[in-house]
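hey team, just a heads up i'm posting the complex here instead of the shared drive bc the drive is being weird again. everything in one block, sequence lines first with there labels, then the predicted structure for the whole assembly after. its two chains so it's a bit long, scroll down
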Amino acid sequence: MPQPELPEPAHAEVDSMLSRKFGREVANYFAGSPLNRLSFLRTDHPFLSAALKHPSTSFLLFNNMSPLAKDPTQLEYVKLEDVKPLIGEDPYSKSEKQIIEEYNSTITIPQLLFLGLDESKISGFEHDIYHGAPYFAIDVTPKGTIKLKAEKLIEIIKSRGLQFVEGRMHMSLPAPQAAIYAQARALLDWNARNPFCAGCGQPTLSINAGTKRTCPPTDMASITEKGAIDSTIVGEPAKDRPDCVTRKGISNLSFPRTDPTVIMAVLSADSERVLLGRQKRWPPLWYSTLAGFVEPAESVEEAVRREVWEESGVKLGRVVIHSTQPWPYPANLMIGAIGQCIPGGEEIHLKHDPELDDAKWVSMAEVKEALEVGTSGLGEDAGPDYKEGGLRLPPRTAIANRLLTAVTGGFLEEHSHAPKM
Amino acid sequence: MPQPELPEPAHAEVDSMLSRKFGREVANYFAGSPLNRLSFLRTDHPFLSAALKHPSTSFLLFNNMSPLAKDPTQLEYVKLEDVKPLIGEDPYSKSEKQIIEEYNSTITIPQLLFLGLDESKISGFEHDIYHGAPYFAIDVTPKGTIKLKAEKLIEIIKSRGLQFVEGRMHMSLPAPQAAIYAQARALLDWNARNPFCAGCGQPTLSINAGTKRTCPPTDMASITEKGAIDSTIVGEPAKDRPDCVTRKGISNLSFPRTDPTVIMAVLSADSERVLLGRQKRWPPLWYSTLAGFVEPAESVEEAVRREVWEESGVKLGRVVIHSTQPWPYPANLMIGAIGQCIPGGEEIHLKHDPELDDAKWVSMAEVKEALEVGTSGLGEDAGPDYKEGGLRLPPRTAIANRLLTAVTGGFLEEHSHAPKM
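-- predicted structure starts here --
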């Protein structure tokens, strides 16, 4: 299978002082979106309504978090006419304020998400000074009161020979499509994963074009014995719900969650070897960089040193951040770093946090060779030049690969030259 | 008021290749914790129990997220005997499994948090190969079934002339204390803010020494009409609770949330000016760097370019990450970056996202002078050399100050030399 392309770094060609001093920016897979998110227009329902109805608009559908696609290398978008039976004529005809006032916890509203405008499409939609082809995503997973409509929609879509592709097919998408997929998946997953308010336990409502969940102060449904919920009695006024702290001021509970993680290529004190680790569930010979979640109240640099020590016993000094990668499974921000051992800090000890099956020091030459002949997706075959028994490493679309490529080649050299005059 | 010290970067003195090529690591305020978190021992109740009871152990108390302190420059810790009336003889005498099995949603368990061991304290606690003085934090906010006990404890503490200091006093703490405070505050706040499961709406239970919340499968309390909760009937078996998706495999909902944010010093294409912005609620003449939340599925570099364009209209090319700062209000990870305009991208337009009161380009010389004479906490007076009408900037404890200091001086020079031989 051909290696999927990586995104072009934005404006990488610009000969700025930062580019001269730090070299070309590294753009990782799932970044490099062609869309302008126009985040400040997400409460503007006249804008959203007009964008939804424009002929240039595309809808990306997800069923159980699997995207609609032609095949594993190409997403498939549908048109408004296709999704009207599920979402109705115009979900943005009422203001956000009205929708909150009319909230009824017994009615399932299909999850719709505004992704942004592709400004490269000249013949697209125009609004004020903004233009481009609009993109939306919809979660068509059959559930609640939209179960039958969603099942019908999925049936029609499948009858056209299209499919909702499961697994990690998206690692084969062209870079701009992978970024659109990642944005849609991360936000639809966050909405589906958080139907209740963590502050008060009551059901919540999606607003801000799919990028916020609010805990409405009233409900048109009536709460009955054992927490079961009745359908609305027509004409009844909305009932007040118990107080919730998220209604007083701004709460992070209302906004999407992104979990920062660290992933790091680790050099020995003499810079001649690289630390690699393997997880218990990986196939034999498979190794990668170490990684872990950033904890509350630690810097990225501290998280890198903590994780490396906890997982391998190795003690790091200087840590440098290399590049970052959004990772939509479900909502990580991978912060890639390069760390170097303090002198004598190389001893491996796997018994602090027994998470790894193994960790070992590998020569630069061996890593370099594996990057050339031994990379692929987990469990897939390596290329034809791979020699049996050789080290296996992650593919180019993984930031681990980019970090290892950096320490065995480009990155350190790029950063060691004096600025061009 | 004297400027509080900044933390020393860990192992900054090590003359590694990364240090030679990238210079000294920047350590920001709230980072630089002296504690080893030993995250892998948080489920080990015999370890936690022994640590809790050791004579070298310190407890940091919070009331409504305000920490116990002698004065604004010094936290105050208490001993186990002081807190026993609230937390009991040994909250870790039972295993985590037992505690989950005995879960009763009508009983308030005081929120206890293991912070780590201060390994610099030689005479501390020893466990296996680990040693140091243990630190715990406790939320003593009066609430639920512990209201009276907590009020009594607070009364006794206050009678000793101690206080729970509100506001941002902690910006005056010595760096290691600030890091301990930040860790405790971030995690206690997360527990207090998330009493319910966002997946199913049921109340949750703190486990893993305060670093995880689980949605127990059973409850010793009985659920009655209208969702009100009765006290346990002695001898009754625990009742099954409705299914929850967080009980199937690992869910991020069970773990603390940290919100990645970007904050960036922005240079003009010719590197001669810096972009500054001011928020509407700030005092006159106050400016800082621009900042904003990272959105799902964007890289840090993309978030920097998006936020700068949305808030100021300015168009960035190359972005370089500088350093990071944990920010415990309530749970941010500030990722500091330096960005540079594309040629001609300097035009300011405040009408995309009208969040800022003003944004403007300021000469390097003016920023440099303000960093010398015009910094302080928000609303505080500047130093004696400040000239009326001059630019005001944030203090050294803010990463914004460190970023501006970097672009007007050290950082770019540090990174422009060839490596030492």
